[in-house]
Specification:
single chain; TIM Barrel; globular; alpha/beta; eight-stranded parallel barrel
């Protein structure tokens, strides 16, 4: 895989609590240099990320996390976060955390409704929605079930992990997700623990279309 093609698949995540505005600017500069597909940031960093990328003439989109990192925010709070990120600050994509506690309680209708509310709003505003399942907390059967709920609710992507609650993507989880959404139009984002190019390319070969990484520079090193 060429470096250019791999860069377009990356969602470069700058989400750790200690990250500063200088880190956002540096990330935007790297995105512009490498033509990285997406820069994923915290809600209060969206406007800065959008402005920096515009200033640099970068094609990179900006994604904003919502209900991050545990997914336990009230649905309307998630909707407000998504609305502000897109309508006010210029984000193009939303990475929303599924309500994991409700899901593990088998409150499936509530989980579907939670995702659907954000999906509808995001789509009305011209954005795309990725739903983070936190696969390290789920059984294989639960991963498959969660993917089904996301598809039913209108999500554009299912995503493995936040990287904050335990191990990230695994080939086993990704394989289940790819099979679960096959033929639905939904796509898979592998995220968490992808620290080198070989791992990134392996997931790409499996069929994922997005790769969530915090070390974009290292992965794209020539």
């Amino acid at each position: 895989m060429t470096t250019s093609k791999l860069a377009k698949m990356l969602d470069f995540a700058v989400l750790k609590p200690e990250k500063t505005e200088a880190d956002i600017r540096a990330a935007a500069a790297l995105c512009a240099q490498e033509k990285i597909g997406c820069l994923c940031v915290r809600p209060t960093d969206v406007a800065l990320a959008v402005a920096e990328l515009k200033k640099l003439g970068a094609p990179t989109k900006v994604a904003c996390v919502v209900g991050f990192p545990h997914g336990a925010s009230h649905t309307e709070m998630k909707a407000i976060e998504a609305m502000m990120a897109i309508e006010e600050d210029g984000a193009a994509e939303i990475d929303m955390v599924m309500n994991i506690g409700l899901f593990r309680s088998r409150r499936y209708a509530a989980v579907r409704s939670d995702i659907n509310r954000v999906a509808q709003l995001t789509h009305e505003l011209g954005g795309k929605l990725k739903v983070i399942l936190e696969t390290c907390l789920l059984t294989p059967a639960q991963i498959r079930k969660a993917c089904g709920l996301c598809v039913e609710a209108g999500a554009d992507f299912v995503k493995t992990s936040t990287g904050f609650n335990g191990p990230g993507a695994t080939p086993e989880a990704v394989e289940i997700m790819l099979d679960a959404v096959k033929g639905t139009g939904a796509q898979v984002k592998a995220s968490g623990g992808i620290r080198d190019r070989a791992t990134a390319e392996a997931y790409a070969r499996m069929g994922v279309t997005r790769l969530g990484v915090s070390g974009a520079k290292e992965i794209l090193a020539r």
